[in-house]
Please model this.
Amino acid sequence: MSIEIRNISKRFGDFQALDDVSVDVDGGSLTALLGPSGSGKSTLLRIVAGLEWPDSGEISLAGEDASGLTPQKRGVGFVFQHYAAFKHMTVRENIAFGLKVRKRPKDEIARRVQELLALVQLQGFGDRFPAQLSGGQRQRMALARALAPEPKVLLLDEPFGALDARVRAELRVWLRRLHEETHTTTVFVTHDQEEAMEVADNVVVMNKGRIEQVAGPRELYDAPANEFVMSFVGQASRFGAAWVRPHDLRLSPTPGDGSREAMVDRVAHLGFEVRAELVRDDGEPFAVQLTRNEAEQLELARGQIVYVRPTRETTFA
Amino acid sequence: MNVRRLDGARRSAGAGLPAPKRVRVLKKFGLRSVALGYLLVVLLGPLSMVFWRAFGSGAGHLWDSLSDPNTVHAFKVTLIIAAIAVPLNTVFGVVCALAIVRRRFPGAGIVNAIVDLPLALSPVVVGLSLFLLYGRTGWFGHWFQAHGVQILFALPSMVIATVFISLPFVAREVVPTLREIGDEQEQAAHTLGAGAWTTFWRITLPSIRWAIIYGVVLTTARCLGEYGAVAVVSGHVEGQTETATLRVQDAYENFDVAGAYGISLVLAVMSVIVLIAMTLLKPKEETS
Model:
């Protein structure tokens, strides 16, 4: 079910967390709110959930005005970065909480909890306490708990932020699959552009309490709306008035048409990919991405002088 | 790589450089004996003297002085006061802690400081202030007198004094626990459809129950032992407005030393039972 966010503003003391933000989230979509810390993305998510009240603006859920509703009336599922597990309850009791509060019949609760335990691959963990689970398991439990009352929308606030890299990668794929199965409108907050690009259909890029761009991952990368999006989503460096991606630069040992002199500062071998940090003749550092073969042919080494030519540039008015 | 690390670990553990180790052992036992010695001299010594002296003139004499109707009445008064003050301060303490931690309102800092006031004030001062407030010429005393309610030199003033004195303990225990658990669990409960009341009973209360129980134990101990404030407001009438602690003084002043020790013994035993009950309950809960 869709979410409509209209002219939301929110201040915390002197800090303008959100400044007249409007955005639509389509029903059934998987959307990322992406931005650096302090960009207002978490605040916006919490306002949608009713955990924070905006100073002005409106929120509609599934076409109905929800601005005046308390969190328990909004029918949203919320997943916190640090799980917010009910520590004194077992996994089963945690997941059942939302159903018990709604006074559903006992056998229905038991059936639904069993279903959800299977969905989040925690069968056999039902009688454990959260303290006996790993971080990834706890977050899956929190997800099952949020999904139990069949929320209209599922909101996740940096859901993988507290997990280590491997579990994080696993859960990303898993969230994607879960969404394909349930088709619940899902919005998650992240500061990790790779996570946003990998998981979401639609990415809302935020900065300083405003929305910079709303687009699919591919469009975001290929056609960024402005310099902020260009530099925040993927790497980019400036060449005169234009911006260039690290893989859109050609290096050559000899000067050529439109090329500039640069010195190699560092070379990192990352398997197939080689990433080189260079310093331009005007002292500006920038990065280049090459294949292993290209790097070998150039015999890249620290201190070496090379010539750089952009193959594709982006300029903003 | 692994082998080398293991080697290194064994070397540093096995070589056991003697000098620092001895210092460590000395430190450990030195600290321990200082702590234990202090406890022994300051706490256990006097307490065991009470036990010793109570039985000094024989169990028969002890029983006689304990079964004295005025003594029995004094214990009754103490228990009645505790039975009123402890629940009152438990509820107030939890509400107060919730207000201090969860609701950001102007003046929360002042409330926080005021809760500690009874810890800083001498009980005698508390008693005196109640005396002035509820006395014949006091602000409230006048009104109560006009309506025929006796506050001073009666149970109400003794309860008020004890409530005042034992007020901070539950709040003091609950505030740090509430801060530590944060409010994310409560927010999660809200998004799952729980109202404020359900959230309090199902989420908040189970998380702070140990802090509450500990606070209740301290409050109870304080109520049983209260002397100064109650001494000022009670009027000290034998068989009427005398609590167990006041009775101890009474007995002592009337050269009934064995009786005084006997009552002290019962008070001490009550406190010890409360403490033991708490330690017995606690570990069972923590394993879950």
Remarks:
- Chain B is about 80% helix and 0% strand.
